[in-house]
Amino acid sequence: VASLNITDAMFTDFILAHGGSEVNPIARAAIVAFGDLFWLWKHTIVSLSVIMLISHIHLRMARVCLALSAFFYGSVTVWHLILIDSIYPFL
To answer: Do 48 and 5 touch, CB atoms closer than 8 A?
Structure first.
């Protein structure tokens, strides 16, 4: 989840630099507030959440939350790749 989070931040930054826009209102507010350092805010929030969930890994709900997070971050990563391919086909 942490590595997918970093990938999401890098792809988001790339897409924004090439004329894209952020659709997540929370991430958009962080980008406006922190500028190019938005990834630091994002990484901190997600990393703290992952640490909290891992510390309770013995609970089924924590495992489910981690699995769902990995699924959704993976889906976002695939979506980013599709968007990047539309900017630069066959990159």
So the answer is: no
Instruction: Yes or no: say if 8 and 80 are a contact pair by the CB < 8 Å rule.
Output: yes
End-to-end CA distance of the chain: 25
Residue 31, number of CB atoms within 10 A of its CB: 21
Q: How far apart are CA 18 and CA 88, in angstroms?
A: 10
Please say whether the beta carbons of 32 and 65 come within 8 A. Answer: no
Most confident of 2-6, 14-18, 34-38, 68-72: 68-72
Tokens 């826009």 sit on residue: 21
Over residues 22-43, the pLDDT tens digits come to 888 988 898 889 888 888 888 9
